[in-house]
Design brief:
By secondary structure, the protein is α/β, with parallel strands linked by helices. Helices cover 43% and strands 19% of the residues. It binds guanosine-5'-monophosphate (5GP).
């Protein structure tokens, strides 16, 4: 994929969605498209790895004991219980990524999204949907990675999560990957043009203008 630049610096980009809406794939594609500027946040979880998932690539797969120890040691910037398992964003990578000037894209649930918003109100908050609830159900059963019980839990959770959509700034329908990628790119580019994100550029222009 072609290297692209958007011009955002040190911004958390939160992507939440009902399970099955395709947010993990999308977040990874965005991080790949803008690899000079955006890092994908690898979460920790106590859920068991699915087929093809690798420790340290998809998640850090921890025992519940270890996860709780990390909570006690303050090793998470946010954590939550989702579908009866613990999930959390490791603080060290999060902090270091932003400190280096990179943006961090996070595929996290609404509890995590709301917690990040409290700490980083200037972050970018995107809620992904499918066109219809039927499409979501179809995607969940087609991916064959979840039991019937787990799918049911995920649908119930989606009903709860959608109540929090107003905490987010944007909603994007994940129709075809390319269209969604283009829409999210457009959001990020528009965000990079916000006056509040361009203090330095504006200051320098003003100074330059004064000297004329
Ligand atoms: P899955 O088990 O399908 O990979 O993820 C289940 C849910 O947990 C998804 O909604 C996903 O966004 C969320 N999730 C993944 N990582 C994190 C995290 O670090 N923090 C929070 N709060 N949610 C997460």
């Amino acid at each position: 994929m072609e290297d692209k630049k958007i011009g955002l610096k040190s911004v958390p980009i939160v992507v939440s969605a009902p399970s099955g809406a395709g947010k993990t794939t999308l977040c990874k594609l965005i991080a790949q498209k803008y690899k000079k500027e955006i890092v994908y946040s690898i979460s920790a979880t106590t859920r068991k790895p699915r087929k093809n998932e690798k420790d340290g690539v998809n998640y850090y797969f921890l025992t519940e004991e270890k996860f709780k120890k990390w909570i006690d040691e303050g090793k998470f910037i946010e954590w939550a219980i989702v579908h009866n398992h613990y999930y959390g964003t490791p603080k060290k990578t999060f902090d270091e990524t932003l400190k280096k000037g990179y943006n961090i894209i996070m595929d996290i649930d609404v509890q995590g999204g709301i917690n990040i918003k409290k700490k980083y109100p200037d972050g970018i908050f995107i809620f992904l949907l499918t066109k219809t609830a039927d499409i979501l159900m179809k995607r969940l059963s087609n991916r064959k990675t979840d039991t019937k019980e787990s799918i049911q839990k995920r649908i119930k959770n989606a009903q709860k999560e959608i109540q929090f959509i107003k905490e987010y700034d944007y909603t994007v329908i994940n129709d075809t990957i390319n269209k969604t990628l283009n829409t999210i790119s457009a959001i990020l580019i528009a965000e990079s043009c916000l006056i509040k994100r361009n203090d330095l550029k504006i200051k320098s222009f003003k100074k330059n203008l004064k000297g004329k």
